[in-house]
Amino acid sequence: MGFIPPEAAQAIERHKANEHIRQQQQGLGRPIVSLEVGGQRVVAAGDTLYYSPKWKVFPDFLADYMKFVVGGDWGNAELAKPFEERHPILQWYDGYCCFQRSMGIGDGEIKSGPVTGVGACYLGLAYNLFLLKHNVELQGRLIKRLKDRSNFQGAYYELIVAGTLIRAGYDLVLEDETDAATKHCEFSALSKDTGKKYWVEAKVRGVAGFMGKTSNDGTSKTDPTSELIKHLNQ
Known about the structure:
With 234 residues, the protein is an alpha+beta fold. The chain has eight helices and six strands; from the N terminus they run H-E-E-E-H-H-H-H-H-H-E-E-E-H. The longest helix is centred in the first third of the chain and has 21 residues, at 6-26.
């Protein structure tokens, strides 16, 4: 290796340090692309650019990104319902808005506050949707399932698993779930380190009264291992 000027060596070390910090914060997927242009905060999600002058920090973008994904008309229709009848996403949205008001968020100043369950659920869902769009593909069929109360929990859990694998540095390949001719999983995951490919099937226990589940599609049994073997065999 030839001589490297001290200034270049320092720049390389700074880049390595910054990349290490980024990976600690964001994981091993594609880095967040965000910049300010002409008073607008611009954020890239895959091949799509989003922008707003209101976004001061990344959670500001995530809160609006959820609305972009599910659609304003659908969201407003859910908000018009009594709270108990709303889709879980809009119940979380209501709780998140209450948290923002309690913290005085929304006056243009950057503020911090404690992590709450409803905030983690709402922004966490938005972030996993962003990760899938930014690193793989955000399929319309998944959004449709997410907006369906009876399918919400399964789609929500799949997004958690997909987001975890993306941050862990796996390349995901989504399966064609419209193909009923053969059995398949939610997606496959390729390890960048070992080259091994894994078939990923995401399953979560449905409990009546939680996450949109009712007695028609959720269990009332308190034993978390009930019917575990049956589900594994399926």
